Amino acid sequence: MQSVVEFDNVGLRYGTGAETLTDLSFTLFPGSFYFLTGASGAGKTSLLKLLYLAHRPSRGAIRMFGHDAITLSRERLPGFRRRIGVVFQDFRLVPHLSTFDNIALPLRIAGIQEKDLKGPVTEMLAWIGLSERSDARPATLSGGEQQRVAIARAVIGRPEMLVADEPTGNVDPEMARRLLHLFAALNKLGTTVVVATHDIHLLQEIDGAQMMRLDKGRLSDPTGSLRHPPRPLVLKN
Amino acid sequence: MLLDFILPAHDRKLIPEGRLSGPMPWVIAIMLFLTLLVAASGLALADAARKGGQDLARQATIQIIETDPAQRAAQRAAVSRALRGFDGVESVTPVADSEVRGLLEPWLGNGVIDVDVPVPALVDVRFTSAPTRQMLNDVQRSLRNVASDLRVDAHSSWMAPFFELMNALVWLAIMILFLLSVATAAVIVLAVRSTLNTHRGTIEIMHMMGGTDLQAARLFQRRVGLDALLGGVAGFILAAAVIITLGDRFAAVEPGLLSGVTFPVYGWAILALIPLAVVGLAMLMARFTVITALKKIL
Question: Is 0.85 exceeded by the ipTM?
Fold first, then answer.
């Protein structure tokens, strides 16, 4: 099976400090669902940054979608980034854009025509329960609403890989469950999902999900699943 | 590059275009106002120096020194006749004695002239083109057969310092224009960097979603281009008002050296190009600054 992401002995250090991530070697397969856990400061966000190509590692090799991501030229990076959806921990919504425009942003960047994006964005707004707030600016939305917009923005383009940093941190349990099911639905369509979370209970929500645990920048693999192709995903009702 | 003004409305929203709300249009308006005034001064001086220089370079005055008035008049007539026979002479104008006395009276007083002071006879000559020094020497040598004591004064020789001054002022204007252009470019770079810092978050998000450097640069180019256009139009209108008003004042001045200073018609075309050049420069600087800054982030 062709991998989506392959890390081989990857290390990351910021400046001249100690390594934030050390000797990471793992493979992510298409259509699999991963939870990335670990204590605060373990390096979850740094690992996600490597996954969504915000940083290059200090050492090691990364292959992404079958290509060497380390030597990827700057001109080719946008094409790869369009294949990855990202939910940032701090949402990072564009403050002067409406809810609608924030969600439509990836489609517009990809050059989708206005007539073709109105339907999917409207549908997404309805799904996250913010149809009535499509003209609202992020500052007028609650934390949970902002998080839903950030998730909608990440998944609207049907990315091949979805990377989410604490995506359910600001929503109530019911909304957290709905969002996870959205991720799972996307995963069923073939998207590889990586969700960083503190919440160990989320792992029980999705059958077949695998866990990657980071401890002081090193990866531990309690299920051993990272070395093997994942099992088919089954959603719990 | 100017086509980058044309962006879909939704793309334009990515970076708010708060027209005239920031300092940049006003700074550009002031810089452009000063630039246009300096350019207009330079153009007017260059035009006056060129026209005046061309005209004066073709003129010379023959001075005939002869104490006997009758003899002097005869020599003036003979010199005038001889001059008309020269190749390259366009016109010959003998200056009447009364006119020469009129020129001297303010310094020497009425009644003194012709009694105590030998007044020279003058003949103005206009050549078809500016004569060379050699040609003037040849004319003087030939005329000495008609009037032994005469001198040929080329007007360009005594006006030369004035035109050298005008040329120096034109060069000064060019230097000031250059410095103002550098200052304007620096202002644009600072404004773009400031805007880039303000919208760094938006640009980073665009990048993470697969936006290209050019997509981001186009947004800044448009915003900066519009600011420069607004500033340019304001600066041009102000400068044009000043130039027209000063032009009227110059036109009202008594004929003399200053009356030669007029703003040439072609000058308006050059002035109109300056704001457009500033808009182009601004967009180019914005593109360069943004792409350079973006290359520092992955």
Answer: no
